[in-house]
């Protein structure tokens, strides 16, 4: 039987967090003969990766020949924001069950995308299931070292400037390494109704009345849900003044929440006043997308311990947790 030509000119497009479309060129004489495609997909390993992880998972997909381009989805457990290399081979299945195969094509590299809104909506639904009842609070607070606040006063015009979010949380979060903001907490102690005296981020705390950051002129977005191999879970929310640069970034990427009625963080009018509540059973990390004036709040030293084990700086999400993972990747 005549040999098959080697596929060439591979094109990858329509890339999502867990799928892609692939096409290539081959000789016209092969088009009617080819019965199967072999696709070899490999995750690009970095120097810190575990070389033994998933080594028993096959990377070669055998697919019946279909008109190109073909969509590859669900054949592997593709991870979001991950670099892969791919090569293809065509084959004719013969009467004895053996395959006549072409040579392997060139190898092409691509990177999968972030979670789309529908994936974040799945994470949101999972977070809602464990959010618990709502507790009242009155201030947002940010813990840090004394030098951080001194630098803001001396070099930043007394403003806390937005900075780029790190890679903590879900690997597919569209905010990681993309969204600028200032992180705040709002969780309170159940028995006192006040912010806890302990912190993983430093002994100095800036407190600001909740209405300064969260009010009917603010949009609230759900951004992520994760844990770090622990029993407690974190939810990341974004507060963005309507029409701001941060608001425009979030509008296309994150689920928008009703500020008066959601399971995580609410601002509602009761007896003519704004009332604020947070979910009891989640640790909320709130990103405010604009600079914050230190003169709008108070700065002081807290009396508790610095619990470094609770820090989420560049924290990696537990990929095995059934509570906070969805099926499209980690």
TrEMBL record:
Start and end residues of each Fibronectin type-III domain = 6-115
Coiled-coil annotated spans: none
Q: Which InterPro entries does this one have? A: FN3_dom (IPR003961), FN3_sf (IPR036116), Ig-like_fold (IPR013783), PHYHIP/PHYHIPL (IPR042868), PHYIP/PHIPL_C (IPR045545)
* Protein's UniProt keywords contain Glycoprotein: yes
Q: Name one Pfam family in it.
A: PHYHIP_C
Q: Which Gene3D superfamilies match?
A: Immunoglobulins
Q: What keyword terms does UniProt attach to this protein?
A: Glycoprotein
Among PROSITE patterns, the record links this protein to:
FN3
The record describes the protein's role as: Its interaction with PHYH suggests a role in the development of the central system.
Q: How does it assemble?
A: Interacts with PHYH and ADGRB1.
Family recorded in the similarity comment: Belongs to the PHYHIP family.
Which PANTHER family has this protein been placed in? PHYTANOYL-COA HYDROXYLASE-INTERACTING PROTEIN (PTHR15698:SF9), PROTEIN CBG15099 (PTHR15698)
**What is this protein called in UniProt?**
Phytanoyl-CoA hydroxylase-interacting protein
What is the species listed in this Swiss-Prot or TrEMBL entry?
Answer: Echinops telfairi
